[in-house]
Structure formats: structure tokens, C-alpha cells
């Protein structure tokens, strides 16, 4: 099961290809759109859980597309992709409902976290799986990101970031069938939970949600003899 569906919207083929290859390798389902019109068609068809949207495009530009996406679907997170000279414009899109923005050339570590955080907000709306077949690794990633993003800035930048990294690594290793490696990252998450709780950085309610998701992920591991 994919970690989420990402729509990459950019008129430049090299950019689309780089982002598509990266996120597909990381376990996401990725669809491309070469224009604002194609992007809006995908949104109407509810084919995206998150959108990576270029600011500068011919025809409908990114700002116009963002406005229309917000009219069609107020919940889908949109991360604006911009050149360095357009950073000020990208910041303005946050007021229009963009979830975040990233600049080219990409800081993939930051982009990775931004995408996971955006998906955690939408796909992780409920603390428990909707049905028994739901992916426990996706549930764990969403629970961790919701908890980490609620931390104070200093805690989020240190242990919160490590929690996010460990949760993503666990999910990716599980998706690739590397269950031993996934289990190691689960142990890391458990240790970090103890640390943030000891320092008072994570409320009891948030910890309970993460621990519940952590236990579900552990139960999905194959039994070794």
C-alpha cells in the first residue's frame, strides 16, 4: 500500500521526473500534471492526497491553480515549488491556503518532511484505522507527524525531527519487506517517546496515540522463531 498519492504539477519535464522518481522510490503513488488544467482535472477526480505545485507555469500559473484547488477541495494540502527569486511570492501563497513551499534546487530532507506532514494532516485525521485492513505503518507515520508538529519549536527541531525520520524509515523498510530494519526503527521510536515524555515535550494524549500506532505496527511484524 502506498504511503499516499502525490500529484506533481510542473510544466518542466525534468522537474516532474526528479520528483516523481524520488517519491515513487520512497513508497508514494505519484501522478504527473503538465499544466494547471491537468492538475484541476486530477483534483476533481479526487486522485491526489497532496499536491506539489509549481509557482511559475504558462497559462494558469501556480497561484491561480492554488485558488481553484481551494475552491474544489479545501482539505488537500498544496506545497508550492518555487525558484529562489520567487520565495516572497511563495510565502504569500501561505495566506491563500498553501500548506508549505520549497525552493529549487530541492532540499529533499525538508521536502520529505513537508510531504509527510501534509499527508499526516489529511490521511491521519482519525487516531485509529478505518478498518482492519488499514496500513499500520501509514497509521504510525501519521500519528508521529501529528505529535511532532504539535511540539514546541525547540523540541520539534531536535527529538521531534528524529521521531519523524524514524517513522518514515520504519514505513519504507516495511513496504520494501525489510522487517528487521523496520523493527529497529520501531525500537528507536519507543526510545525517543520515552525521552520526549521525560522532558515534558509530548502531552500524554499524543503519546497514547503514537504508542497505539506503534503497537499496531509491531503486531504486523512476522513472528520469528
Description:
This protein starts with a strand and ends in a 5-residue tail after the last helix. Helix 5 (108-123) crosses helix 6 and helix 7 (153-175) runs antiparallel to helix 8 (179-198). It is globular, with a radius of gyration of 18 Å. With 225 residues, it is of the alpha/beta class. 59% of the residues lie in helices and 12% in strands. It has 2 domains: 5-111 and 119-123, Rossmann fold; 136-220, Up-down Bundle (de novo design (two linked rop proteins)), CATH 1.20.1440.60. Mean pLDDT is 87; it is low at 125-133. Strands 2-1-3-4-5 form a 5-stranded parallel β-sheet, sandwiched between helices. It contains 9 helices and 5 strands; from the N terminus they run βαβαβαβαβααααα.
The counted number of beta strands is 5
Provide the structure class. alpha/beta
Q: Kindly state the percentage of residues in helix.
A: 55-70%
What is the CATH topology descriptor of the largest domain? Answer: Rossmann fold
Distance between the terminal alpha carbons, to the nearest Å? Answer: 27 Å
CATH class of the largest domain: Alpha Beta
Structural Rg: 18 Å
Runs in which pLDDT lies below 50 for 5 or more consecutive residues are 125-133
Number of domains: 2
Amino acid at each position: 500500500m502506498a504511503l499516499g498519492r502525490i500529484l506533481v504539477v510542473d510544466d518542466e519535464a525534468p522537474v516532474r521526473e526528479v520528483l516523481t522518481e524520488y517519491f515513487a522510490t520512497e513508497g508514494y503513488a505519484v501522478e504527473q500534471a503538465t499544466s494547471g488544467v491537468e492538475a484541476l482535472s486530477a483534483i476533481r477526480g479526487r486522485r491526489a492526497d497532496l499536491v506539489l505545485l509549481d509557482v511559475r507555469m504558462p497559462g494558469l500559473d501556480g497561484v491561480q491553480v492554488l485558488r481553484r484547488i481551494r475552491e474544489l477541495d479545501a482539505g488537500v494540502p498544496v506545497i508550492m515549488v518555487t525558484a529562489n527569486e520567487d520565495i516572497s511570492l511563495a510565502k504569500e501563497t501561505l495566506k491563500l491556503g498553501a500548506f508549505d513551499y520549497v525552493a529549487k534546487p530541492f532540499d529533499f530532507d525538508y521536502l520529505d518532511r513537508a510531504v509527510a506532514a501534509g499527508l499526516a494532516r489529511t490521511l491521519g485525521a482519525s487516531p485509529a484505522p478505518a478498518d482492519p485492513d488499514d496500513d499500520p505503518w501509514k497509521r504510525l507515520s501519521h500519528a508521529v507527524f501529528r505529535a511532532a508538529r504539535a511540539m514546541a519549536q525547540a523540541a520539534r527541531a531536535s527529538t521531534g525531527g528524529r521521531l519523524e525520520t524514524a517513522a518514515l524509515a520504519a514505513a519504507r523498510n516495511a513496504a520494501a519487506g525489510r522487517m528487521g530494519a523496520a523493527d529497529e526503527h520501531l525500537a528507536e521510536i519507543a526510545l525517543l517517546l520515552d525521552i520526549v515524555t521525560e522532558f515534558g515535550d509530548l502531552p500524554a494524549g499524543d503519546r497514547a496515540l503514537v504508542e497505539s500506532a506503534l503497537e499496531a505496527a509491531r503486531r504486523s511484524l512476522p513472528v520469528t522463531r
